[in-house]
Amino acid sequence: MADLLKQYCKDHPEFLENLNSFPENIKQKIVKNLNNNKDKINFCSAIAEIQFGLLFNELGFELEYEREFFNKQTPDWSLSFNNSFAICEVYRLGKSKKDQNRSDFENLLREKIQKLPLCYLIKITFFNEYFDVNAYNIDNIFFVFSDWLYASDKAVGDKVIIQSNFEFEVCKINTKINHVCCSGKAYLIDYKSNKLIQFTHLKELNEVSKKLTKYNTLISDLNLPYFIAVSIDFVSGFNFIDIKEHFLGKEVEFNDYDTTIAKLPQFNHLGKEWSEMGIFYDNPQLSGLIIQDNNRFNLLLNPSKNQVIYNNINKIFLDNLRKIHV
Fold this sequence. Notes:
Oligomer: single chain
Low-confidence stretches: 251-259, 265-278
Largest sheet: 6 strands, mixed
Helix content: 25-40%
Radius of gyration: 24 Å
Number of strands: 10
Strand order of the largest sheet: 1-2-3-8-9-10
């Protein structure tokens, strides 16, 4: 068992047992993918895919994992129920790779410092909060700090600045604890709205924009319902309401409207502050969203009654999908 999977199973002892609910071929493919995954962010994204797969499995859908279609595309999940068929792509809305690297850097530095057998409480300050982690060596910073700490007895208020970016200050001497403790300014969530909003000045499409149009040809050729499953990580700074406003229009909802109504002048403003790419009526190929927020699943359907998900052939499929909390 690879390191990331081993650590995940240690924290989630029920995980491998839960995989037994999948057909054996899907289970084996999942375990193989997880064992081969060495990148933490990609591993977490794979876990998000599995969580949605477990949901679909619990709802009684027949599943295929990363099925390859005629055009070589492989949506994360293919779902069928009562002769109706749909595809689903999973997106984990979490830290960017840059944010993750910065967090990993701080955690590793703290782990090293907290192994020192001294009774100080040390406050750590990063002058440049979003520094390039590749520009600094953790071992070098630790050795300089360690040499400073051992060089003489320290008093509250003593401090050292290392490489112009890292300040270490003695805040307290606690003889009841036999190792260094660390404190610091709370690392604020870096709320990046461009993870959802496709700003016009950005040359590269964000991940949501890519997924909105990724399967257009497949959807058109096969007349398939298409869902995006969004797993919201707390550190992303987003929640279900943010997603709902982004796709339906801020503070305004329609229970039943078609694309013609949505294009009328009096409705043109709906959701535009969140950008045109995220509006359901601008993306008729998207059947809906399945959103996991704080371990709760929510279903958000495209309200356009022309959407393929509302065709009679998909009625029982949709009724089953609606068992998801709304």
